User: Fold this.
Amino acid sequence: MNTLLSHTLIAVTALAAAMLASCAHKDIECSSVTREIEVLFEWDKAPQAHVKGMTLYFYPLDSYSKIWRFDIAGRDGGRVELSPGHYRMIACNNDLPGIWLEDTGKFSGLTATAASRIDTTTVATTGMLYGVTVREIEVTPCGVRYTTADGNIKECVKGLVRCQPDSLSTQFTVRLTHPVGAGRIRTAYARLAPIASAMVLDSATPVGENAALYLALLSDDGNNMLGGRGCAFSSGTPANSPSHLWVHVTKADGMMVSLAVELADNNRNILSPHNVIITIDSLDLSDGNNPSPDDVGGIEAAVDGWTAVEIDVEASTR
Assistant:
């Protein structure tokens, strides 16, 4: 074989080897600057949720990284860009003017606080807050690895993170059926206590001072009922501690009626209450009085907050 042909074969062989090596390693040639991942919200735990948007906080477990915040429209989720690294994520809906997010600089400190107050001890409805925490997300140059709520490790080269938001607030509903001596009602409202003024999102722990929730009561003459509802943070008080309901009515003739009701909180699930319905039948609104908090009494009810529970109470006259 002549020298020229020999050199040509060697060159071709070297080029082919280089091309094969390049193809073999092409699948790990990924950008190390940022990585686009997709967060998908699945609403199996709260199918009734219809949120307008979600806010996501990514807290770094690596000391050299920074906190990332993203606002995503809609309830389904969306794509975000993160630097490769280890993170913890907290997400919640961002369509509630009745809630402020505070202490956002720390994963264990991120707090939702009731924003609107009627007075120093009474807060307005916050709206229903939904949230989810993912305690470990590793963003790599070529994908994502994360730990689910039940402890399973998921890995996805497409960069997909699935998570399931749940209710963090409690919806409280008060129904006064067949009120006695109600007559024509000009205005009516109730205050339910205690509720918490804030909640730490990481652990769903109620914090802040206890307060009362203001509930405007509307008259339903067709069903002979006064009713109202609102959302707040459950106080997480131990079982058997009392809950108080104050009812305030102004009649068309100017007469004002204030009544106090004591609710025995025997069965509330304090870890994750979602929906409490209190139905009081035949409450006597014929006489006006102004009880102090120490004078609360006369009616007892068991309140269960794990699912939608209706408590029908026959009102007593004192």
